[in-house]
Amino acid sequence: MKLKKLFQVRCSFVEKVSEPVLNKLLDELLHCGVLTDSENEALRAKLRPEKARELIDTARKKGADASTKLIAVLSAADPYCCRELGLC
């Protein structure tokens, strides 16, 4: 369910998520083991739209647990964006 929902909001996520929120997501997802150090470093080197697109795709590819963690971290970091996307 979370995988499908992330796919549905992918374009809106890329448009709406801010750089500071993306950086917070990267920090938290690295801390909880969703992202590896190399994935984190590669994502940080990208511009905001590509960073957002690849982050959501990476979480989706890693499955339901990673997707759920991404949504939880987004909810904590930017509850307005999370609600606007219909994820919370």
Automatic annotation (TrEMBL):
One of its GO terms (biological process) is regulation of apoptotic process. Residues 1-79 form the CARD domain. It holds the Pfam family CARD. InterPro entries: CARD, DEATH-like_dom_sf. PROSITE patterns: CARD. This is CARD domain-containing protein.
